[in-house]
Amino acid sequence: MTWVPIAQLQIEEAGGSDSCVASNGFCPDWIVENIDRYWSPLLEHVFLTVLPVAIGFAISMGLAILAHRRRWLTGPIIAVTGIFFAIPSVAAFFLLQPITGLGYTTAMVALVSYTLLIIFRNITTGLRNVPAETRDAALGQGLTERQVLFRVELPMAVPEIMAGLRIATSTTVGLAALAVFAGAGGLGSEILIDKRFKSNVIVAGGLAVLLAAAFDLLILAVQRLMTPWQRARA
Amino acid sequence: MSVTMAFLGDFGEAIQFIFQERESVSGGVQIGGIPELAAFGATHMIVSIAAIAIAAALAIPLALWLGHIGRGDFMATATSNVGRAVPSLALLAFFISFVGLGYTNVIAVLVLLAIPPLITNTYVGMRQVDRETVDAARGQGMTGMEIVRKVELPLALPSIFGGLRTSAVNVVATATIAPLANVQTLGEPIITPQTYGFVGQLGAAILVATITLIVDFIFSRLQRAVTPAGLKLAEPAARRHFSLPTKRRIKST
Description:
The complex is a heterodimer of chains A (234) and B (253). Chain A has 234 residues and is mostly helical. Chain A is built from 12 helices and no strands. Helices cover 74% and strands 0% of the residues of chain A. Chain A is elongated. Chain A starts with 18 loop residues before the first helix and ends with a helix. Chain B has one domain: MetI-like (MetI-like fold), CATH 1.10.3720. Chain B is 73% helix and 2% strand. Chains A and B meet through helix 4, helix 5, helix 7, helix 9 and helix 10 of A and helix 4, helix 5, helix 8, helix 10 and helix 11 of B.
């Protein structure tokens, strides 16, 4: 068994003999001096967010297109992804360990499984909200079913798809903080290293919140670029 | 029995941990078994139920009122965005370092986590009630309070229960990390592997996952039970909202 108990993670001495640090306070000086140690967990956190969302998006898109053709599949897909969505991530990180071991793979599988319900549902809703007249017009112009999907329906569903991506991304940033239980690092491991030290909690937790906000703005910007017609109307 | 358990490997051992006491990894104390895990489970349930009840008492009336007067798009969006952006672990650690350990703080964290889905779902549920239905009710001489009680609330109930479902699942899941704040929930074996070992962690994970799925199932049934017959034709999953509907949908409806 290769797992490392959390208690065995090295508890690093907070730098200096500063009284603020000794009392676990909020110490701007300490933060400025020690900010460097947070970059690599932050980078891990970025990977733990981007990869699961990207993989989850690919899977959900495939499932949504399948369910678009075969409507009866929608219910079962929502039921199964709903179960994935309900299993607590902390539990999933341990349930997967006998199969995928300790580390990134376990974290990835669990995090991907959480994104599915949210993204799938939003793509499906987006596709369904395309007005029937628009579809008919496209078919009338001689477009094939496939062309209608890729040139008309999916572009029109972009706002909803992007809304799903935003929800999935901010949720994943939060859940990735728990990936420390799968032995996958990230900002969560920094929080656990010293959860009583205010400066540490503020920096590690704050970076996670900022990361979620940054991703949100990024996806919003991409959405604006992808839907020029909405900008023109507004 | 033991043959099947051996076949199941770690999972078999973990299930044995749930049912049979054994000596701890570090030696000395007895761990696992039904009495200990039942005690953890009871704490888990008590903090979860308290948190959901408090959050519902605070969030639902507020969102009902905002939804009724039709103001609060910004607030509903903001709470759901902020609620998602703050990781549960960070929020708990924030409380541990700034406020302290113990039941009250754990429940406070869980309440904060439970509020956003309740506000979003209650608000969206109220706003999605057909304006013509409300106008018809008003035309029949109903007062504002009557419209809320007899028209808007029944039509919004499925959405409100969708919010309760999301909140309950989040709260029960997050109560797992409560032992970090010295509240011994079912997460205790997960947080203290030096005593419980991987088998204990896995056993606790199995219990937490099972309980959450049961909670999810119960709330999905409740959601169905409170859905007015006329709404049952609509797609059930559409009655659980993770955010406000995108602009285009509001316009088209």
